[in-house]
Specification:
The complex is a heterodimer of chains A (533) and B (334). Chain A is an alpha+beta fold and 533 residues long. Chain A folds into three domains: 132 residues, Dipeptide-binding Protein, domain 1 (Alpha-Beta Complex), CATH 3.90.76.10; 101 residues, Periplasmic binding protein-like II (D-Maltodextrin-Binding Protein, domain 2, 3-Layer(aba) Sandwich); 218 residues, Dipeptide-binding Protein, domain 3, CATH 3.10.105. Chain A is 33% helix and 20% strand. In chain A, the strands form five sheets. Chain A has a seven-stranded mixed sheet, sandwiched between helices. Chain A has a six-stranded mixed sheet with strand order 14-18-13-17-15-16. Chain A has a four-stranded antiparallel sheet with strand order 4-5-7-6, covered by helices on one side. The longest helix of chain A has 30 residues. Chain B is mainly alpha-helical and 334 residues long. Chain B contains 14 helices and no strands. In chain B, helix 11 packs antiparallel against helix 14. Classes of the chains: A alpha+beta (533), B mainly alpha (334). Chains A and B meet through helix 1, helix 4, strand 10, helix 7 and helix 13 of A and helix 3, helix 5, helix 7, helix 9 and helix 11 of B.
Chain lengths: 533, 334
């Protein structure tokens, strides 16, 4: 009989377990905070760390964008550079000395003042491998400034609110680089206090201060009342980590979160049709492309390259693999960047014209080649294999038989750098919103060296090279934009690529969310965002 | 008995040694390293080489392995390459979440599974038997992520009874002591938060518990059927014992041994393999932690956490073996 009692007790316990749990929700509502607005934002991944200088992933940067500020920053909806913690700046004629005049009366969240010393402290920490606070890889510093210390020679405190940065060689994208979230200014006192653990205790000057980070669950931020720019609309911003795309959307529909990222292409319609939700598109700062190895026959012939440009139906790719939410690309640069040449007319989709060009080039019956497809989904190309298959069909229609080839990611990249391929799918996500970061990296002859090429079309044009170098040495943005526009015309005519798409990642929010302007760089500060209660 | 336990614990040493060696080799032999993952398209050979040097990946493999073993012996699992946090510290937050989920899942699985199995065996070929075994078959075959999404859809979205994801509503925050939220909320004396944590636990526990529940039910049924045909059951009935007594005391107790084995094994699997459930329900547990680490080739995390999980798996098996003697006094360990 004892056993029966035990079993009945267990069953009873199970019931109680379920019942109390169901009651849980009602109890929760009673204790809900009232009045103060809270913004709950759900993303697919947890931050890696919260030290802005040491992270490169979007999940971390989204959070640090709220806590930190940079000397200069990007405009609300494009990558033009405007004043941030520095109110103004000037540069010497030779482009080597940059003087920044800092904003006064700015405080870090720990109460310490923001000043020239603090700026110098941060630069020294990033630049110098032997600095006692150089904990971590400082990935973006090394990458954007060419190593440690790289192109920066010295950072000097002129007076409390003036700081002078001297470069070894001119660097046109210098300002664009400084606007990157990685070069946000941290509180020196906090870095000294937390040492190696600073990534868990971020202290900046931004509109929200850090409160709590429960790993893989949530990051809680609170309004910083002494923010120099005024008070944010939200008393709290909470980032939640909800890895599954469908579960995340359900949380939004149930009203538990205010906004989400990373929506399945199939769910876009659901969001559009829901009267309580709104769909937002993040402007693209990437490009997915098909590179043609111009060192290999028959791709050394410009007519063949132009023919392939005419043969591929980009619109169909966008509709089939991006849920219609991407822009067919006509330039290597995404349209959100200054310097984008909108006057260029894309090669229209025209298989007959493609065939005629192939005949002119001496290939009336087409040819056989290989088409390399990436093994992994990337932001600019969520389904590379399927896209390769669609391109394969387009090519077949004009007589080109392409065999699809793929390797694991690391091998794929390596073989691409070695130039072992013929047709090669790849893409690029911009770092600093500067055209140089696309055109020079991807299409200049300097970067077409076998074994380390990032110009995987191995496209070498001296005129393009001259223009890109001139643009690098010029500090006037209007002039630089002209050079880039000219370079895009030459690149268009030489057609080393088929620029395929600029993807525009969809976001969803409750209808009540206002003033949210998604930024092309992938994240933005929620200072001005608001919602109706 | 004590001798036996000591001997089993000593046997752990070569087992763990083997596991660390295998894990180390496997993770290092799959293509790609953390550097490829971190740099992606931006990987210039100079940057990659520099980063490899920084991360200590240029040392020969045997040196890296010996270094890992040496640190392990000093109780140091190293720091994550990606997050720079101590692996042990990260495990201390992720592991309790999985333990809590696994305990709840196994609780549901055991109670329901055994009860269903016993009734199905006693009433063999009845509608209950057919129905529950059909249910068990479905349960074993159902993809967890699909079941999870359906549970969320029904109980969270349509009925609105239970929260769809996470461990605690954002309104609540309790000081971390054990990282088992049911305990932490009670320690904080926050009754509302406790109920909230419990509510968050139900759906994922149900999803995770379905497969072991089905396996336990089927195991209990077949084991019970075998025992019920034994002579001593006939004898017990002939003695005039009540049916409940016959089934629970004589049959179930004897049929329990294989069931216990299954429970022990399932428990171990759940501890390491709740990746799907943890993903669907945004449960910040160790399964997803390891999965992400493998994808990022975060070597110290993969090595460290798999070693710890293996250790626990082996310990659970030991406990099960000891429990055998409690349930079946005929079993003696020398």
């Amino acid at each position: 009989m004892k056993k029966i009692k035990v079993v009945s007790f267990l069953v009873l316990l199970a019931f109680v377990f379920t019942l109390t749990a169901c009651g849980g929700n009602t109890a929760k509502n009673e204790t809900k905070e009232t009045k103060e607005k809270v913004f709950v934002f759900a993303k697919s991944g947890d931050p890696v760390g919260l030290d802005p200088a040491n992270v490169t992933d979007g999940e971390s940067i989204y959070v640090t964008q709220q806590i930190f500020e940079t000397l200069v920053k990007y405009k609300e909806d494009n990558t033009e550079v405007i004043p941030g913690l520095a109110e103004s700046w000037e540069t010497s004629k030779d482009g080597l000395t940059w003087t920044f005049h800092l904003r006064k009366g700015v405080k870090f969240h720990d109460g310490t003042p923001f000043n020239a010393e603090a700026v110098k402290f941060n630069f020294d920490r990033w630049m110098d491998k032997n600095n006692p606070y150089h904990h971590g890889e400082f990935e973006y510093y090394g990458y954007m400034f060419g190593g440690y210390p790289g192109v920066i020679k010295e950072v000097k405190v002129v007076d409390e609110y003036t700081v002078q940065i001297t470069l070894k060689t001119p660097l046109a994208p210098f300002l664009s680089n400084l606007a990157m979230p990685s070069f946000a200014i941290s509180s020196p006192e906090a870095i000294k206090k937390y040492g190696q653990d600073y990534f868990k205790h971020p202290v900046g000057t931004g509109p929200f201060k850090f409160v709590e980070w429960k790993k893989d669950d949530r990051v809680v931020l609170e309004r910083f009342d002494e923010y120099w720019g005024g008070k944010a609309n939200f008393a709290k911003v909470i980032f939640r980590t909800i890895p599954d795309n469908s579960a995340r959307l359900m949380e939004l529909k149930s009203g538990n979160v205010d906004a989400i990222t990373d929506i399945n292409p199939d769910d876009v319609e659901t969001v559009k049709n829901d009267p309580n939700l709104q769909l937002l598109l993040r402007p693209s700062m990437n490009v997915g492309y098909l590179a043609m190895n111009t060192e290999k026959k028959p791709f050394d012939n410009v007519k063949v390259r132009q023919a392939i440009n005419h043969a591929i139906n980009k619109k169909a790719l966008v509709d089939a693999f991006y849920g219609g939410l991407a822009k067919p690309a006509k330039n290597p640069l995404p349209p959100s960047l200054w310097g984008y040449n909108d006057e260029i007319q894309d090669y229209e989709y025209d298989p007959a014209k493609a065939k005629a060009l192939l005949a002119e080039a001496g290939y009336p019956n087409g040819f056989t080649t290989t088409l390399w497809a990436m093994p992994v989904a990337r932001p600019y190309m969520p389904q590379p294999k399927q896209i390769a298959e669609a391109i394969q069909k387009d090519l077949e229609a004009v007589g080109i038989k392409a065999k699809i080839v793929t390797y694991d990611w690391a091998t794929y990249l390596k073989k691409g750098q070695n130039g072992e391929h013929e047709l090669y799918l790849l893409g690029w996500t911009g770092d600093n919103g500067d055209p140089d970061n696309f055109l020079y990296v991807l299409l200049d002859k300097d970067n077409a060296k076998k074994g380390s090429a990032s110009n995987v079309a191995f496209y070498k044009n001296d005129k393009v090279h001259d223009l890109l170098i001139k643009a690098q040495q010029e500090s006037d943005q209007t002039k630089r934009a002209e050079y880039y526009k000219e370079a895009q015309v030459i690149i268009h005519n030489d057609a080393p690529w088929v620029p395929l798409v600029h993807s525009t990642p969809p976001l969803a929010a409750k209808k009540s969310v206002k003033n949210w302007i998604p930024h092309p760089t992938g994240s933005e500060c929620f200072f001005k965002v608001d919602k109706d209660e | 008995m004590v001798n036996y336990i000591v001997r089993r614990l000593l046997q752990l040493i070569p087992v763990l040694f083997g596991i660390t060696f295998l894990t180390f080799m496997l993770i290092h032999f799959i293509p790609g390293d953390p550097v490829t993952v971190i740099l992606g398209e931006h990987a210039s050979p100079e940057r990659a080489a520099e980063l490899r040097e920084q991360l200590g990946l240029n040392d020969p493999l045997y040196k890296q392995y010996l270094k890992f073993l040496n640190n392990l012996l000093h109780g140091d699992l190293g720091r994550s390459i990606i997050t720079h946090e101590k692996v042990l510290k990260e495990l201390a937050t992720f592991f309790p979440a999985t333990v809590e989920l696994t305990l709840a899942a196994m609780f549901i699985a055991t109670v329901v599974g055994i009860a269903a199995g016993v009734v199905a065996a006693v009433k063999q070929y009845s509608w209950f038997d057919n129905l529950s075994m059909l249910g068990a078959l479905t349960g074993v075959s159902m993809p967890i992520f699909w079941l999870g999404l359906m549970l969320i859809y029904l109980f969270a979205q349509v009925l609105g009874w239970l929260p769809p994801s996470a461990r605690l509503s954002i309104e609540y925050s309790v000081p971390t002591v054990t990282n088992l939220y049911l305990i932490d909320t009670l320690l904080a004396g926050n009754w509302a938060a406790f109920k909230d944590a419990l509510a968050h636990l139900i759906l994922p526990a149900l999803a995770l518990g379905t497969i072991p529940m089905s396996i336990i039910a089927r195991m209990t049924r077949s084991s019970m059927l075998e025992v019920l045909r034994q002579d001593y059951i006939r004898t017990a009935r002939a003695k005039g014992l009540g049916e409940a007594m016959v089934i629970l005391k004589h049959a179930l107790k004897n049929a329990f041994l294989p069931v216990l084995t299954v429970i022990g094994l399932q428990f171990g699997y759940l501890l390491g393999g709740a990746v799907m459930t943890e993903t669907v329900f945004s449960w910040p547990g160790v399964g997803r932690y390891i999965y992400q680490a493998i994808m990022a080739r975060d070597f110290p995390v993969v090595q460290g956490s798999i070693t710890i999980i293996a250790l626990i798996f082996v310990l659970i098996n030991l406990i099960v073996d000891i429990l055998y003697t409690v349930i079946d006094p005929r079993i003696r360990y020398q």
